[in-house]
User: Which sequence fits this backbone?
């Protein structure tokens, strides 16, 4: 029984290691695209005064988050894709859940989804854009392993 538990723990830790090395881990957790440990954003997306503000460099590994001036303008393309995907998702959900809904309520609901989700989609677009250009380089040197 102990052997099985140990084997299971080994598999579990291996799976956690592999998951931590994926770009999706960095995106979902808003972590540094290089080391997946430092924070990417200064604050959470709904802290509107600091929405989408990045640290200039990783707090754990020290690598810079911007490789050239205006680097994050490209995140607009990602934000556009997320916006279209969310509008279509909201519209399809309405068609399935409330097929008889009028055009005006549809427009209001989709607008509400975009308005309320806006700060989150903005942050998401930046971390996705960063992960399109930066790759995982392992844990920061000298830092204790998780
Ligand atoms: Zn880092």
Assistant:
């Amino acid at each position: 029984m102990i052997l099985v538990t140990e084997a299971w723990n080994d598999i579990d830790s291996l799976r956690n290691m592999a998951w931590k090395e994926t770009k999706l881990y960095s995106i979902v957790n808003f972590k540094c695209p290089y080391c997946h440990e430092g924070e990417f954003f200064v604050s959470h997306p709904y802290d509107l005064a600091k929405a989408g503000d990045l640290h200039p460099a990783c707090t754990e590994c020290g690598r810079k988050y911007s490789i050239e001036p205006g680097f994050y303008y490209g995140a607009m393309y990602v934000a556009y894709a997320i916006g279209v995907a969310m509008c279509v998702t909201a519209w399809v959900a309405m068609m399935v859940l409330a097929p008889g809904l009028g055009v005006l309520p549809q427009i209001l609901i989709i607008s509400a989804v975009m308005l309320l989700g806006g700060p989150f989609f903005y942050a998401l677009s930046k971390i996705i854009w960063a992960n399109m250009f930066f790759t995982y380089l392992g844990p920061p040197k000298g830092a204790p392993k998780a």
Remarks:
- The helical segments are 2-20, 23-29, 75-97, 103-133.
